[in-house]
Amino acid sequence: MAFDYDKYIRPGKLPHIWCPGCGHGIVMKGLIRAIDSLQLDTKNTAIVSGIGCASRLPGYMDCCTLHTAHGRAAAFATGVKMAKPEMNVILVGGDGDGTAIGGNHFIHACRRNIDMTYIILNNKIYGMTGGQFSPATPTGAKASTTPYGNPDPPFDIAKLAIGAGATFVARGTAYHATQIDKLIAEAIQHKGFSVVEILDDCPTTYGRRNKFKSVIEMMNHLKETSVPVKAAEKMTAEQLQGKVLTGVLYKEEKPEYTTEYAKVIERAQAK
Question: 17-270, which class in CATH?
Fold first, then answer.
């Protein structure tokens, strides 16, 4: 029996705005399957985003949704979680929205270890706003603002999240579609700030400028350059050159922010 995605889609919002071949729809379906597998109450689940192609995702989903200012998803989501700690709070955004314009909010959400899940759709470019390079654009890659090649080194978003204090960090790809829901579900279940980076493709503003001949070629590139964590343990440094690890990259248990903040309130009220 086919999975029923329709019950999680807001009536009247399709078709979506994403370009043919964009991987964002694959990620949205993975998120829907994760929510369904955990039997989350959509009326008690907030999906929050900023601005950009990836940030359009919450508008299609029949949950409690916030489409906020550019780069400010983590700030708005923190407000939701602080006001209603019992809610499931999920953030969705792109690499530019999350780690450039929203970079400050991102690292401090990681540092606080507030119980939210941030899904970052990393397609290595600003898509909606004109194809500018982002903090995740590879060195040498072309964008509208780096037509002769990007001189900057890119962020490793997963390492950035770990270094900033996130207590659950995972990475998947749009090619490995059936893994996405499992990573997101595990992230949601984790008590603390979780980051799931999904390596994605943008055929329109990244693929064309960087000489990818087709969406299939871009998807195969995701497949060929990614290695599961367990497989990587058996590979040499030379074999891992140019590869990115996928799966659960980091997990630890630490005090969660809303729980600790509630203790501060109790101490204050006891005075």
Answer: alpha beta
CB 212 within 8 A of CB 221: yes
User: Which tokens belong to 86?
Assistant: 């019992």
pLDDT reported for residue 271: 80
- Within the chain, strands assigned E span 45-49, 64-67, 88-94, 117-122, 168-173, 194-199, 226-228, 244-251
Contact of 100 with 134, CB cutoff 8 Å:
yes
Strand pairing class (194-199; 226-228): unpaired
Would you kindly state where each structural domain of the chain is located, as residue ranges?
A: 17-270
pLDDT tens across 219-252, in order?
999 999 999 999 999 999 999 999 999 999 999 9
pLDDT in tens, 101-157: 999 999 999 999 999 999 999 999 999 889 999 999 999 999 999 999 999 999 999
The answer to whether 215 and 208 have CB atoms below 8 angstroms apart is no
Handedness of CA 171, 35, 50, 203 (dihedral sign): positive
**Token code pair at residue 185:** 């579900």
